[in-house]
């Protein structure tokens, strides 16, 4: 298959929504999730702070997977 976009759709690759506690606005828009929906799913995962999220992915099945920072792990701004 020559089309990268078509290949991504057909293979169902995860889409990164959060990196180091910061929302990837472009990917969030493409995923058709609102900030409120993302934060609601974060709360359902047991936390309220994006700062604690190392990465978050929208999976091909529609679920959001959160990879949390380890204790003491932080961004350069802390």
From TrEMBL:
Keywords: Cell membrane, Membrane, Transmembrane, Transmembrane helix. The keyword Transmembrane applies. It is found in: Cell membrane. InterPro entries: DUF421, UPF0702_alpha/beta_dom_sf. Its main location: membrane. It comes from the Bacteria. The keyword tRNA-binding does not apply. Residues 2-71 form the YetF C-terminal domain. Pfam families: DUF421 (PF04239). It is a multi-pass membrane protein. Belongs to the UPF0702 family. This is DUF421 domain-containing protein.
């Amino acid at each position: 298959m020559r089309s990268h976009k078509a290949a991504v759709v057909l293979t169902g690759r995860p889409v990164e929504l959060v990196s180091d506690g910061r929302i990837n606005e472009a990917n969030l828009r493409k995923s058709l999730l609102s900030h409120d929906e993302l934060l609601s799913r974060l709360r359902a995962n047991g936390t309220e702070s994006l700062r604690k999220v190392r990465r978050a992915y929208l999976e091909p099945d529609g679920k959001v997977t959160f990879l949390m920072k380890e204790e003491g792990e932080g961004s350069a701004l802390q």
